[in-house]
Amino acid sequence: MKSILKPYKSKNLQLENRVVMAPMTRSRADNTDNKPVEGLHDIYYEQRASAGLIITEGSQVSTEAVGYINTAGIHSQAQIDGWKKVVKKVHKQGGKIFIQLWHVGRISHPYFHDGELPLAPSALNPNSEVYTPEGRKKTVTPKEMTQEDIDRTVSDFRIAAKNAMEAGFDGIEIHSSNGYLFHQFFNGTSNHRGDKYGGSIENRARFFFEVLDAVNEEISTSKVGVRFNPSLHGMFGMEMDKETIPTFEYIMDKLNDYELAYVHLSEPFTDVSDVPYAVTQIAKHFRPIYKGTLMINTGFNQEAANKVVSEGNADLVAFGKLYVSNPDLVERFEMDYELAEWDSATFYTTGKKGYTDYPKMKESERP
């Protein structure tokens, strides 16, 4: 049997296969409640329930966490009720599903916050762009978070974890990656704080671990996954420096003290072979450091996924774009069946087109 199609059993995860549906922003929650849409979100995830594990699109933990249009949150009762319908359909198909908890930090705009500034570890403009209903807008200099802001955000994640359990999810993933709030705290180019949340590696990781500990007050960390992108460079104003990789090495080593469901890492989004301090092979670099379940993503096809698992550098592989256009990706892998191409023009639009209308294999073609 192909490595990624073998069941995966650990103390905290029991999966039918090692194929994971990666979290992907899809911007289909076009309603005033920012809740999942019945007849749309539930169908989308139900169609992909043969994955060993589904991780949902990023779901904001509060109104302060928003930075994208039409994204479904997990901080109101309407949103909880909307996600319940999604989870119920996935479970009915025998699937397992985690929700990704999200705070974008400075990658936002006052448009989303009634004119107030987005929150960030330091008042540093990422000099990026944010898409709003009024079109693309340049980012602004955010508000440096006070202790009160930090405490409130820690509480937001704790409550969001509780809400996720009410919605019936099998677990949560904390989005600590891709230039968003946690990553902004980790990185020395976006965190210029002089208090206990800035300066040293331990200080810059403090906020993340405060959130992880707070979440553990509501749910066991055995139901928690975390995501990182150690070699992110040039996206959302993030630049690597000499402490970038040591910061993630410190975090990964410390996570060995937690009973997590998994750690989810991304290979570099861009070519970083000429970037000082970058690591070009993330799974291979961090596998000896972290002793628990390791998930890897970014740019994998079936052959590369089987290789990284068979060589022992990862336990699970997450697929993003391939899951957009191939709802039955596992079955196609089983049969080496042709994969459908995705339409990038409909990644972030609304409605069914490019979302729930990608066909599965015909019954006669199934194994």
Question: Can you lay out the helices and strands and say which pair or pack?
Answer:
Elements lengths: L7 E2 L4 E2 L3 E3 L19 H7 L5 E8 L16 H16 L4 E6 L16 E2 L8 E4 L2 E4 L4 E2 L2 H21 L3 E5 L5 H6 L14 H15 L8 E5 L15 H11 L7 E5 L15 H5 L7 E4 L4 H9 L5 E4 L1 H5 L3 H7 L32
Helix pairs in contact: 1-2, 2-3, 3-5, 5-6
Structural notes for this entry:
The protein is of the alpha/beta class. The protein has one domain: Aldolase class I (TIM Barrel). The protein is built from 10 helices and 14 strands. It has helices at 41-47, 77-92, 147-167, 181-186, 201-215, 244-254, 282-286, 302-310, 321-325, 329-335; strands at 8-9, 14-15, 19-21, 53-60, 97-102, 119-120, 129-132, 135-138, 143-144, 171-175, 224-228, 262-266, 294-297, 316-319. Strands 3-4-5-10-11-12-13-14 form an 8-stranded parallel barrel. The protein has a two-stranded antiparallel ribbon with strand order 1-2. Helix 6 links the parallel strand 11 and strand 12. Helix 5 packs parallel to helix 6. The longest helix has 21 residues, at 147-167. The radius of gyration is 19 Å and the shape is globular. The two termini are 14 Å apart.
